[in-house]
Amino acid sequence: MAPDRRPAPRWETAAVGQGREDAGRRRGTPASPDDPADGPSLDDATVLRSTRVGRLVRAHPWAGSTALGASVLLVGAVTAVAAGETVFGAVSLGLLSPEGRVADLAVPAWLAGAAAGALVLAARDARPLAVTAVLTVLAVASLGSAGVLGVLGLCLAWSLRAVASRRTTRTAVAVAVGVLVVVAVAAARWQVIGLAEVVGWGTAGPLASAGGPPVQQLEVPDPSAGRRALTVLLLAALLALGVASGEVVKDRRRHARALVERYAALARERDAGAALARQAERARIAREVHDVVAHSVSVMVALSDGALSASSRAPERSREAMAAVSRTGREALADMRSVLGTLHAEDDGDLLESSTRPTSTDLRATVERFRAAGLAVRAEGLATPLPVDTAARLAVVRVVGEALTNALRHAPGSSTAVRVHRDATALRVAVVSTGGTPTASDAGSGRGVVGMRERAALVGGRLDVGPLEDGGWAVLLELPAAPD
């Protein structure tokens, strides 16, 4: 059975070539997503920010930093109120002197830390390590000057999130451990108001203030290992959460990058397939046009020359020759319309039908046409059944026509024999030309031989072309036999 000659699918992409947009509009096919003219190209940022909020952040990169900064300021303001209540409670309990350093600087340092953290975090994506270092310095300075960490621990968690999302896991963990050690040492040495103090002093202060004068007034209360451990554990949890969330972001970015790479590979494969399909289509159309023009026009020229030379001495023969010219011209026009019709096929099915529908597959008529043009042709086996497959049958007729055309054009006066033989294994066609006078003016382009080889290969056959020892020329076509 002859192989399927269904043409390769035509992919419509931005790389297919000019006219894609108009062709797609005619067929109603959507434009390719990788066409820059149709919208933004697909990249990992597009994949990651495919939601409405993500698209807003992509369109306005400052929106994310602004939202984070506002959130830090809001949390800082709310927790500063709690810090103020804690200071009040500590003073009421007599744990802090109302004129002491911590009572005066705790709330201002808390708010200043929130403002500085919000400002520094704006650069976390561009310089994550530098931002983490600056925030660590701010945390140590806040603890040393006012005895409070404030929301700088939360800011450090956000900066470590950026570090983990843009650096290796080992780097992120090392930075987190370093930050934790530095801040823990500073907290153990200088922290006065932490989470335990907020819970204990902030609620007990108003009750104690109604119970009488303070029992003690200390500038800084004695540090409690339990209270400092709670601060360190809370900070460690925040830093670990920041690193973990950064790893999630990094994994999502890696996955998005893999999707984009896969998309690009598919697009390249699709465009390569489209290029091969276009090349094959151009070769097929060129082959068909060559067959129509070279075969038919060569016969028409030979018939016209014969009619012109016989017009005075044999008018009847001249009229017959001109009638043959007319028939050949009409057949050529029909063949050309069939070829051009493939360019306007609306789908692959129509393309296949129009590309393999010949106007004539009559081998005997083809031979008679060249005889009428003056070529001496001896034929054997023209009644041999040709393959049922349209493409194979057309290949036989086209190869014979090309071989006879070459004999007519390049070896006028030659004697040509066409032999067709079929057995259980193969169909064999031989076109052998001997004698004649080779023309030196037209060496030919070689497209005809290439076209014959391509036709034979498309239907699973083999073609041998070459000169004979006695100076002739032979074209041998062999097609595998298929059940009728």
Automatic annotation (TrEMBL):
Listed InterPro entries: HATPase_C_sf (IPR036890), HATPase_dom (IPR003594), Sensor_HK_TwoCompSys (IPR050482), Sig_transdc_His_kin_sub3_dim/P (IPR011712)
GO MF annotation list: ATP binding; phosphorelay sensor kinase activity; protein dimerization activity
Keyword terms, alphabetized: ATP-binding, Kinase, Membrane, Nucleotide-binding, Phosphoprotein, Transferase, Transmembrane, Transmembrane helix, Two-component regulatory system
EC number: 2.7.13.3
Domain Histidine kinase/HSP90-like ATPase: 394-482
Keyword Mitochondrion attributed: no
Protein name: histidine kinase
